[in-house]
From TrEMBL:
<dbReference type="InterPro" id="IPR019531">
    <property type="entry name" value="Pmp4"/>
</dbReference>
<dbReference type="GO" id="GO:0005778">
    <property type="term" value="C:peroxisomal membrane"/>
</dbReference>
<protein>
    <submittedName>
        <fullName>PXMP4 protein</fullName>
    </submittedName>
</protein>
<dbReference type="Pfam" id="PF02466">
    <property type="entry name" value="Tim17"/>
</dbReference>
Length: 174
């Protein structure tokens, strides 16, 4: 599963934003795919093993077992701050926030909004990310910085249509 998810992403991001020889790019793609796949496999093995151990010790599975097993697995497998783990954690965090908001509504902790809150969320997310990009770019995750540089800075200089179809590396030439 990790290879199925990571390989296409690594392929696109590497050829869009990384420099180097074809060999270096292919090695980077293979390394990212391997790391993602290995970490997911280690996590699943750790999580399932801890769930089985806790269930065996207590004679049944309880909801806290999932949380504890995942916390331990997350610490052991995804605790190192590197680009692959960082991206996985950001992916999960965004989905967790949406799920917790839905759960809060379902459980009655907050009332169902009268209007869809998504347009407001979209506005706040885009407003915040562009403000950060313009004034505090170094705080953004590197691949987000690369994407935003391509979209909002490199696009200010172009030579012909191939700049938009292939890659427009920012230059000072006119």
């Amino acid at each position: 599963y990790g290879a199925k998810i990571r390989a296409p992403h690594a392929l696109v991001m590497t050829f869009l934003f990384k420099s180097g020889s074809l060999r270096e790019k292919l090695r980077s793609i293979a390394q990212a795919t391997y790391t993602h796949s290995r970490n997911l496999a280690y996590f699943v093995f750790t999580y399932k093993g801890l769930i089985a151990a806790q269930s065996g010790l207590q004679g049944k599975k309880i909801p806290f077992h999932s949380f504890l097993a995942a916390c331990i697995g997350g610490w052991l497998v995804f605790g190192e701050n590197n680009p692959i783990n960082s991206q996985i954690i950001m992916y999960l965090l965004s989905r967790i926030l949406f799920a917790l908001a839905r759960l809060a509504v379902d459980r009655g902790y907050i009332s169902q909004p009268r209007q869809d809150p998504f347009p407001l969320l979209a506005a706040l997310v885009w407003g915040t990310v562009l403000w950060l990009f313009e004034y505090h770019q170094e705080t953004l995750q590197p691949s987000l910085q690369s994407s935003m540089t391509y979209l909002y800075q490199d696009s200010e200089v172009w030579h012909d249509l191939s700049d938009f179809l292939i890659y427009n590396k920012r230059t000072d030439s006119k």
